[in-house]
Amino acid sequence: MTKSELIQRIAEANPHLTQRDSERVVATIFDEITEALAEGRRVELRGFGAFSVKDREPREGRNPRTGETVHVDAKRVPFFKTGKQLRERLNGDEAEADA
C-alpha cells in the first residue's frame, strides 16, 4: 500500500473528511513519528508495533561491484518491532488478536 492509497482508504472510510483532510491527517502522523525518532524517542502504537532508532557502529564493508573494502561510518537507523496483535494476525491467529 502506498501513501496515496492509505489517504484514499481513510477518505473512503470517513465520508465526513475530505481528501485534503485525510492527506493532512496522514502527513501529521508521519511528521510526528519522524520528529520523535529524530529526537531519539520511541513511538509505540499499541497492538501494531513500536518504532525506535538504533545506533550502528562504524565497520568495514565491501563494495559489491569491485570487492574493495570500504569504511562505513557510524549511523542511526530506524527500527520497527511488531506488536503482539499484528504478529498474531499475520500468522493466522486472528481469534487471539481480537482478544
TrEMBL record:
Sorted UniProt keywords: DNA recombination, DNA-binding, Transcription, Transcription regulation, Translation regulation
Xref: Gene3D superfamilies: IHF-like DNA-binding proteins
GO molecular function, one term: DNA binding
GO BP: DNA recombination; regulation of DNA-templated transcription; regulation of translation
Entry GO terms, CC: chromosome; cytosol
Top-level taxon of origin: Bacteria
HAMAP family cross-referenced by the UniProt entry: IHF_beta (MF_00381)
NCBIfam families the UniProt entry points to: hip, PRK00199.1
Recorded family membership: Belongs to the bacterial histone-like protein family.
Function text: This protein is one of the two subunits of integration host factor, a specific DNA-binding protein that functions in genetic recombination as well as in transcriptional and translational control.
Subunit description: Heterodimer of an alpha and a beta chain.
UniProt name for this protein: Integration host factor subunit beta
